[in-house]
Amino acid sequence: MKAGIVINPGTPVADLESVLSLADQVLIMTVNPGFGGQAFIPEMLEKIRTVAKLREEKGLSFDIEVDGGIDNETIKLAKQAGANVFVAGSYLFKEDLAAQVETLKAALND
Fold first, then answer.
1. Which residues contact 76 (CB under 8 A, 6 or more apart)?
2. Buried-most residue among 4, 10, 14, 83 (CB within 10 A)?
3. What SS3 state is found at 68?
4. How confident is the model over 11-57, as pLDDT tens digits?
5. Which pLDDT score, from 0 to 100, does residue 64 have?
6. Residue ranges covered by each domain of the chain
7. What's the burial of 52, exposed, middle or buried (CB within 10 Å: 0-12/13-18/19+)?
């Protein structure tokens, strides 16, 4: 069993600082939860950077996951900000599923 924390776009990172040491994973929602196909909220990149910095400063090892608006461009930005787990939904089904998965993999390896 693993412990995870989810932070929505409107929730400050400070609200989760006291429990980070208990987490195996922190999910940063990069859209407001509710429905698929929403656009990635660019301001969430700063939250990813902040959580990654806290992880480093505190010597922790949790994964940073992002969910919402992930495509071949936003996946690169999220990775650069410090995320290492990515949830893609709508993007995968725009065209051939296997081809879209390969596009995301290639974007991560650029």
1. 107, 108, 110
2. 83
3. coil
4. 999 999 999 999 999 999 999 998 888 899 999 999 999 999 999 99
5. 98
6. 4-109
7. middle
